[in-house]
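Q: DUF1672 family protein, please. Structure only.
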Amino acid sequence: MDFKKIAISIVGLSILLGGCSFMNHSDEKEKKADDGTTPVADYKGQGFYLVDGDKSEPIVKKNEAEIKKRAIAYMKDKYKTNVKVNNVVPARDAAVVMVEAEEPIQFHTSVIVGFDMQKKELDPLPNVWSEEGEVEGAIVGGLYAKAYKQEFEKLDTFTKMIAENNGLQGYNNLTIEKTHANGYEKSNFFITTSIDFKKTYEAYLANTNITEDKLRALFLTEDPKFEHTHMVCNFFTKKDKLPPNEEVEKIGSKIKRNSALPKGKYDIVIYKNFIVNRVGLPNGDNISVEDIQK
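A: Structure for DUF1672 family protein:
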């Protein structure tokens, strides 16, 4: 997953959902709700919607238990990983199932269960799949977090402290659980990679209880300079206003100086205080600093 592509898609989304009218709304919650957005702290997945979901919603309601069962089985059979289902979202000719792995690694991802829209029922098995590379990338992010567990615990604490000290905030857990498939994700950051880390990924499939030491050795073999792991740090203001650029630059400098944090590249982004309901993402405006190498 490429961070720049994420940023572009969010800007494009804001245009599709209302163009420049999104950029100059008042602070009133009621007005924002009418426009399909919600303040970050209040957003818990309400209104999350995928294209043509209204057409497949009756099939989801009728078959939700079986849809969940198929998604869980798919993750176990193909990726050797137990997951729980956090949300089942009607979509075009399918349901998108938001799943979460908790042990032996942590990550969020999604699985697609296909429908026969003419018969108004589930497709015969095995018509269950995932977006190309999405689950694999989520697993690699979870493995990186396991390999450097203490460092990521410190990053979680550090980003929460940054938010508190600067009047900022992050996603709440329900938003992540119900609407995100970003792999290893906490309230203020998620991990993404720019290469496959094939050896590390295959080692996990061969032994899902692979140790932290072995994971570190594999990651160092495949990425000795930590150039292909990205920590994307997301913050939101508590008002419908962005701070000066200097604020995000100061956060970047603090991350650069903190030797206790995980190595890799960092992007720091500050958004306004609203989420687009139907996609669970920010509504466009942001300030950012990218490619901080640690």
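A: Brief note, in case it's useful. The chain is about 40% helix and 25% strand.
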